[in-house]
Amino acid sequence: MLTFLITISGVVQGVGFRPFIYNLAVRYKFDGVVFNNSYGVQIELNTDEKTIQKFIDDIKKQKPPLSQIDNLSVKKIEKKSFDSFKIIKTKQSHQQKTKILPDISICKECEMELKDPTNKRYKYPFITCTSCGPRWSIIKSLPYDRNNTSFDKFKMCQECQDEYNNPKDRRYHAQPIGCFSCGPVLNLRDKNKNIKTTQKDMITQTAKLIKDGFIVAIKGVGGYHLVCDATSDKAVGLLRERKKRPHKPLAVMIKDINQAKKLSNINQKEQDMLLNKARPIVVLQKKQNKILSKYIADHIDKIGLFLPYSPLHILLLDILNSPIVATSANISGEPLCLNSKDIDKIDFIWDYCLEYNREIINSSDDSVVTFVDDQPIFYRVARGFAPISIKLPYKLDENILTVGANQKSTISLAFDDMAVISPHIGDISTIKSIEHFKKNIKNLTNIYNFTPDTISCDKHPNYESTKYAIDIQKRKNININKVGHHYAHIRAVMIEKNITKKVLGVSWDGTGYGDDGKLWGGEFMVCDMVSSKRVCSLKAFKLIGGEKAIKEPARIVLAMLFDIYGKEAMTVEHEAVRYFTPTQLNTFYLMWQKDINTPVSSSIGRLFDMVASICGLIHSVTYEGQSGAMTEKYFDKNITSSYSFDIKDGYIDTIDMVKQMLKQKDKTLTISKFYRTLVNMIYEVYQKEPLPVVLGGGVFQNALLVKLIKEKIKDTTISSILPPNDGSICLGQIGKHNNIVV
Ligand code: ZN
Ligand code: FE
Q: What domains are there in the chain, each with its CATH number?
């Protein structure tokens, strides 16, 4: 008999790993112990060399569904004696290295119990087990034990306690365990008072209110949604009006895959993604029919659908049996509402509120994803997927905190060869959103007991994240590492895809701070893991009024016209010119001429805006990415011609393209040729720098563009775990040449 120590790391806590080991060890008739520690799970047991091998094979083959083994090591240790096999208390040490799970949608077994009238948790809206339910949204610190979660204030009833204590039960140590008599309870109210009804009737009442056209705020797993009947123009129109969100598409929650098939042209991959245990919003090709309100996403041919992810949503959709709008409850630019106080601040939007008394410690918005052929492209990585751990292609010799960009903020903690990335935090510009950003850093570093040696940020001096990093650097006297925005975009993909050799990075986005202090966004750079060199770029054009030109793309067209015709541009017969008054035109001309509040930009995002405006699709945008989304619908794959452009001294000049576009009246032709031209730009640079192509930046949320590039250049890589937009910048900021251990 020998004593062995097995150490397992990965996703092994909060997923039923210890009871699994216990039951397996009991079958093997082993004596020993299993426990959690800061690395994951450790097992000590007595047996011989041959049997331990079989045991390890069984661990790998039969491990619990939500678990993931990154590392498993076995070593012989000094002889110990045990009288049976036991699960023992967690052994703590300093920094936590285990992975925490995101919030997971309800599992099959729990869903069956939820619908079984003989079960004690029949219709209990918070039913959960070790294979499903909230994790990230309830955790305060590691190790993942009930007293470190927001369930600490719920005292288990005897029945739940017995399940919790029994290693043979599927709710053994399920931290969010509860039932009608001991777990969280619902509350339905209007703006002034609670609605009197029983727990079991509350969801039926809510369904009725939604059917009657009311807007109901509903507390989901990681934040509140604003919900209304997706088939009613009146209800959806009202929601848009009250939320002051005129155009941005609204996500729709549907009961099942059959409803998805009625509303969209959906393939197998997309169905699998809808059913993924994260239950993300999947952006699909819309079917033309009159089921949904025309106000959901009328100007584009896509629709974002998702399935119920919590027992509460399942119960609600079962009663309603028709689609609902479920959009994040917040004021534009502000963080998601997490508690009654937050939701009451926007009570001008909702009529009723359905909530419950379990605190949301860490927020997470819905994840959003689309497909390019078989490959997912994420718009937002949050509920169900994040926090996400990514293995680095190198080892670090220090702890690094990276704080990302300023829009679609995410942050990461990096240590050893691992990065833990937070869910989408959102844009950080308002006081509340800056607080929210800081709270996220505090929570994540607390959970991991993490102290950074270096803080990494963007080079943009006005980013709130940069200001935060500088402040921390000074106060804590740690190192700071500023990484160029567009290099970080490419580096993020390289790290995710484990690419360490030289690549041609194509970094296209809306705006980012360039190394020369100008606004970049149409960059080609030859990069490896430690350096980058800009080899080509879109020739910059003027943004009359700076930020205002981002909202009003007609200003970009006008600037181009000034570039071509000078003052005469004011007399050009074009919609974008007529969009402005003569006084405005005169002012803009002066601004253009004298460079007053008229920064230049090399952004492809802005080029999309300009093209959408030239085609008369839109002269003022109300949400980011609108022009890109609107152009997709006009692309005709049978048009293969393109515009000519000049590449000179490392700049791509588009003035010729614009001249040709202005003469063209046919939107479909202009837009199709524009897409082909963008692909040709990359192809031309690729001919000069024949390296593997890596795409990064928000422009590549455009699935059509990515598809066309991949058709033309086979050796093209784009991220598929993190989004191509600024949500991945924090990953690209990890490590520099002097703290990477090769
Ligand atoms: Zn379950
Ligand atoms: Fe960016």
A: 2-87 (3.30.70.100), 186-369 (3.90.870.10), 543-678 (1.10.357.160)
